[in-house]
Design brief:
alpha/beta; TIM Barrel; three-stranded parallel sheet; 12 helices
């Protein structure tokens, strides 16, 4: 089985944002410009051999791009294939904590994703801290982005050091899923993952052929094999394209299974 830990089923509100124009240039305009049916997302998963995907909501300062309600509806339609990841309004921490608790306890959402670059603040901003405490209380991971920002926003909030390192020190019980590898600070990201037991990395937004060599080497170590999860960032990258060349990484059977499935099951409690 293959589990994609970072995907979106894109709404029209999500696709129309000009912040994604840079990604369209880089990908040759393969990102859809109009809303697509849920069956198209499932077909893309099938074509790439992805059995389950964690679908994320998107809450931005300018409004909700993909709502928690929409994610819940899609998961209800395909409960064997899709899993919900919540997003909340960073400006209203206590309302967001209540929203998160309801989504997890009543609807089975398996994590929270808030993107610091979208809000143009670092993940050590005080408004994040009630959410981190809620994630620990609920037993779910906090998912975020590390590395440079492909969309048209500043990249500084994506630095693993000092930001992820500081959060992990303040909340050692919090599982932090660091999406997008951390490039160009990949070595920083690996160092933080080595240091903190509950910090893991996902490879979303990178095809297999573009995963940095230092991360591939880390995946093959005793501790590193349990620290890296597969993700696509669909629809920015299709699953089939993301997985192309996997055999050439030279992963043994155990490491490959952990990367594609086992680590996701453990981290997200699937």
């Amino acid at each position: 089985m293959t589990i994609d830990v970072w995907a979106q089923h894109p709404t029209g509100r999500f696709l129309e944002r000009d912040i994604f124009d840079s990604l369209r240039r880089w990908t040759g305009n393969v990102i859809p410009s109009e809303e697509i049916p849920l069956k198209a997302t499932l077909a893309a998963m099938d074509a790439g051999g992805v059995d389950r995907a964690l679908l994320s909501a998107w809450c931005a300062p300018e409004g909700v791009l993909i709502s928690n309600d929409e994610v819940a509806q899609w998961v209800a339609q395909e409960p064997e294939r899709l899993i919900g990841i919540a997003s909340v309004d960073l400006r209203r921490p206590m309302e967001s904590v209540r929203e998160l608790r309801g989504r997890v306890r009543d609807e089975g959402f398996k994590g929270l994703r808030v993107l610091p670059w979208l809000w143009e603040v670092p993940p050590t901003d005080a408004r994040f801290y009630p959410l981190y405490a809620a994630c620990v209380d609920l037993g779910i991971p906090f998912c975020t982005q590390v590395g440079h920002t492909g969309p048209l926003r500043p990249s500084e909030p994506g630095r693993p050091i000092p930001y992820i390192d500081r959060i992990a020190l303040d909340f050692p019980e919090l599982t932090i899923v660091c999406g997008h590898i951390g490039y160009p600070w990949t070595q920083e990201m690996i160092a933080v993952a080595r240091k903190h037991p509950n910090v893991v990395i996902d490879t979303s937004a990178y095809t297999t052929k573009r995963i940095p060599a230092e991360l591939v080497s880390y995946m093959k170590t005793g501790s590193g094999r349990r620290k890296v999860l597969f993700g696509t960032n669909y629809p920015m990258i299709l699953p089939q394209h993301a997985l192309d060349g996997l055999d050439k990484l030279g992963l043994d059977d155990e490491t490959r299974e952990l990367y594609l499935e086992g680590n996701a099951r453990r981290v997200f409690g699937l």
